[in-house]
Amino acid sequence: MQDYYQILEVSPTATEAEIKRSYRRLVRLHHPDLNKQARDIHIKRLNEAYAVLRDPAKRAAYDAELAEARRREEEHKRQQAQAKREAEMTWIEGIFGFVRELKKELKD
After folding, report:
1. CA quadruple 37, 41, 42, 43: dihedral positive or negative?
2. HEC string for 53-81
3. Average pLDDT of span 54-74
4. Which among 16, 38, 36 has a CA at the least distance from the CA of 26?
């Protein structure tokens, strides 16, 4: 998922005026008529990001989706760390972990 705030170089708490100012500055910077090395993809990304962030309803939906994506990413990292830790366990630690989980299940 693209981070529109990063594309427009603004913080997630930026106001509409700050977003508009940053958008206009970046469009001038990447416009093909002013910058011969500019690529069309930059302008398309800027336009897409600005279209979402300037509309309060779209921005709220985007912020919720971005928060959910970050939560899933953190959960995935946590699961990977746990799997790595479990892979490094000795067999005795594994037995104690199994007994601990078994007791927890029996309580429930």
Report:
1. positive
2. HHCHHHHHHHHHHHHHHHHHHHHHHHHHH
3. 95
4. 38
At 63, is the pLDDT very low, low, confident or very high (cuts 50, 70, 90)? Answer: very high
Q: Which of 66, 54, 51, 70 is nearest to 14 (CA)?
A: 54
Type of residue found at 13: T
Taking the C-alpha atoms of residue 83 and residue 69, their distance in angstroms, rounded to an integer, is 21
CB 44 within 8 A of CB 92: no
Among left, alpha and beta (phi > 0; psi -120 to 50; other), residue 9 is left
Cβ 66 vs Cβ 1: under 8 Å: yes
Which domains are present in the chain? Answer: 4-107 (1.10.287.110)
pLDDT-above-90 percentage for the chain? 60
Instruction: Name the residue with tokens 């067999």.
Output: 91
